Amino acid sequence: MMYRHEKVKIHRQTGECVEAIAPIIVSASRSTDIPAFHSDWFFNRLKSGYCGWRNPFNQQESFVSFAKTRCVVFWSKNPAPLLDKLHLLKERDIHSYVQFTLNHYKAEGFEPAVPGLAQRIDTFKRLVDALGVGAVIWRYDPIILTDKLQIDDHLGRILAISDMLKGYCEKLVFSFADIAGYRKVQYNMNQCKVAYEDFTPEKKAQFAKGLQEINSTMGLELATCGEQIDLSSYGIEKNRCIDPNLIARLFHDDKKLMYWLGYDDMFGAPTTFPKDSGQRAACGCILSKDIGAYTTCGHGCLYCYANTTPALGKFGCERATSEPLRETLGNL
User: Fold this and answer.
1) With pLDDT > 90 as the criterion, what percentage of the chain qualifies?
2) Is residue 114 in a domain?
3) Alpha carbon distance 279, 281 (integer Å)
4) Is residue 332 part of a domain?
5) Is-above-0.90 flag for pTM?
């Protein structure tokens, strides 16, 4: 198993020769919605062979080469712009799957720039037609409680969405909103006078029990993302969003990728997979390289941890989108 990022030399568009990491798996992206707003930037950088990445904590810039990339995991609330570009990945023999956040917060106005539910359901189905069942994962994320939006409301919405996705979806991943953990999220919610409630362990268990009950109708695999609480007694596992088992199932014919993951023709699958040490303690993801930048998403979601404010996120998105050939997204 070669469970690490290799390093290679690249030539920047400035002509400078620099060192870059060459990840096998690229995550695009936990920091912004690349498919919705920056797909042109991503595929331009893929064509160039590399991109820049700026550390959000110390602002140090580094470089990411696509020379070894075998799989891209996309994260999006509106991946429709990917549909006419997926062939560009296939032409480079690069696999992909999509983490598709499909909430229904229209009445609350929590996601003001996200397309309507019917349009997103159509996008989900078209992506599944292109990539296959299992390669598009439904995320109902995060679950937010307010004085007007309670657990039964969420369960009703989940059941309705699952009915619309019947035959196209096999897994539901969710998380509970952690508003108290992000000061800027608290500020944005308070500015909009949202009377939010924190999820107690008791309310999390209540939701899990209700989800287990309606899943007798939905028939989905259930999992949490980044949650410490153990809900396995309700048939809910802890998810790996960058998931070696899913990758092996979808792309098992890719010998280079299987070798990197540790799969062996003689000895079979590894018994354990090292997690990505750069993620939260409760995250189960394996190693990947996340690209993208905070404050470059135009969805304007009130609960977003990646934008300082919805307005600043929209501004940063417009600035980044205006120069799709830039090396580093969000290098404003």
Assistant:
1) 83
2) yes
3) 7
4) no
5) yes
